[in-house]
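FAQ

Q: What does a record look like?
A: Structure on top, sequence underneath. For example:
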């Protein structure tokens, strides 16, 4: 499915083992501020809306759970694929 800005909801690239079974329509890379403290793959609370939508989003519009440690991020700043 095409999203605003031409982004695809389905991610067809490589995912590490800890994220390999995740819903590929909702995965996103983010800075984990939990135990990881580094860039990790996370699972959004809805399908990926596109990079331009995430850039305009406000705190709390979206959330993503780190697939490594489970920390929930609510700041879509710099989430990407």
């Amino acid at each position: 499915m095409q999203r605003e800005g031409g982004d695809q909801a389905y991610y067809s690239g490589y995912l590490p083992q800890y994220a390999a079974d995740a819903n590929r329509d909702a995965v996103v890379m983010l800075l984990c501020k939990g135990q990881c403290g580094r860039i990790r793959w996370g699972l959004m609370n809805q399908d990926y809306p596109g990079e331009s939508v995430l850039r305009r989003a406000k705190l709390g519009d979206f959330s993503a759970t780190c697939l490594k440690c489970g920390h929930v991020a609510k700041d879509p700043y710099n989430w990407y694929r």
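Q: Is there anything notable about this one?
A: The first helix runs from residue 51 to 56.
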